[in-house]
Amino acid sequence: MSVDGEAVRTRSETGGADEPGWEVDPDDEWGVAVITTVGRQLKLRREAAGLRAAEFGAAIGYGEDLVYKVEGGKRIPRQDYLVRADEVLEAGGLVAAAWEDVKKVRYPKTVRNLAKLEAKAVEIALYECHIVPGLLQTPEHARSVIGAAQPPYSPDDVERMVAARLARQSVFERSPAPALSFVLEEGVLRRPIGGTMAWRQQLERLLKVGRLHNVVLQVMPMNCDTHSGLDGRIELLKFPDGTAVGRSDGAFNGRPTSEPKHLRILDLRYGTIRAQALSPGESLAFIEQLLGET
Predict the structure, then answer these.
(1) Mean of the pLDDT values across residues 281-289?
(2) 135: closest CA among 165, 174, 178?
(3) Which of 69, 118, 221, 280 has a CA positioned 20 to 30 A from the CA of residue 188?
(4) Can you name the residues that pair with 126 across neighbouring β-strands?
(5) Could you tell me which residues come within 8 angstroms of residue 95 by beta carbon, excluding any fewer than 6 positions away?
(6) Number of neighbouring beta carbons within 10 Å of residue 226
(7) The pLDDT value given to residue 109
(8) What average pLDDT does the segment 117-126 reach?
């Protein structure tokens, strides 16, 4: 259900292509359908304009090989590609408009699915023990976390994943606003990922979000002698119709579950962790203290 701390490889482990654009995930049926359709339309328009692939590529500033891959549904074009193609083909904005669908496909399928769930949830609760949750990350922090993966992602894939993670943060702009609850480990807040300036920005982000009327942010102190979250992260999403989905690293094989009995267990564990953590006010004061020490 979550991809914040999990590697989602979008290209070969040995490296990505050196051309601008993104690979299409063959297991993403909807994504394949979108890119195949866009590619076919581009090819038909190019041929109708009497342009060879090499000529078209030169006109829009991209290589012939990439043109063939886009038209063949093998590569996800960037917005700039579609905009330039629209101009060269005199499509009157119809080609450029395809970006509204293409931009969704550029995110990994797992991220899109999670974003859809978060967009519908009226309550989101998350205990994170290893990293700052993706919903709370700054661009610089997200880039540092994703960029530290081994084996490393290509720079292009890093930017793709950062964009996907930040897109999920639109949940904070929803109206009516969902109820959001986060519990973070003190140790996570003491690790200056990305360097001093990037880390200061991340702490400031936590303070800003933690003061929102619909957000409760708490810190689990390191000196707590009883800790019910040692099995790993817990995530709960509740929806308007009374249904819910949850996941925990230490329960039900780590898989998402909507079983009422399982959800009660996760609710109990999360509630206990919140009771063991610092209060919201104490937590914000603690983060302010860390910011002053950074």
Answers:
(1) 97
(2) 165
(3) 118
(4) 182, 235
(5) 41, 42, 45, 82, 85, 86, 89
(6) 7
(7) 66
(8) 91
